[in-house]
Amino acid sequence: MESLLSPLTGSITKLTSFTLLFLFLFSCSTFTPTEAYDAVDPNGNITIKWDLMSWTPDGYVAVVTMFNFQQYRHIRAPGWTLGWTWAKKEFIWSMVGGQTTEQGDCSKYKGNVPHCCKKDPTVVDLLPGTPYNQQIANCCRGGVLKPWDASSFQLSVGAAGTTNKTVQMPKHFTLNAPGNAYTCGPPQIVQPTKFITQDKKRVTRALSK
Description:
Radius of gyration: 17 Å
Number of strands: 14
Number of domains: 1
Distance between the termini: 21 Å
Largest sheet: 7 strands, mixed
Strand content: 35-45%
Structural class: mainly beta
CATH class: Mainly Beta
Helix content: under 10%
CATH architecture: Sandwich
């Protein structure tokens, strides 16, 4: 499905050319402008959204999307890595279009074992050629993110609660890429993202926080 984005407004903080500043705007739709000063692209940024799509018996399903709004910088191989710290005792039941670098200690689970039980998971993109049933739109490019392009993955989160009042935002986000350093700010809640189906005949939206 295709995301519809509204323009982001706000002042741009000028930093050194190798320092990137993240401002995470988190909700059921999460926008994260990553503002970096570049003399030839002073307004360039990477935007990260965390869209809560549906509820599960013990949590929710979310789609996380990174948009590269830098005109001249791209994330090259071996690609991006995205990390965060859960606010409570959340874990990841399953993922599509990405995977965590470590599973962590899931020994207390019998039968259906989660994809990742770490308090601070780190996610990477899948490689080209990934089986179709493990893909999502804009995934599986080995973490490469060209200017004006997007990269996405989906995760099912457990132990998160099943209402807007129980779900809490992850903390301490980090984004790493070859040759770049990033500093992350706190998430903020924004309006839910709207999606258009492939046949262009129906519009859906992420859940409201």
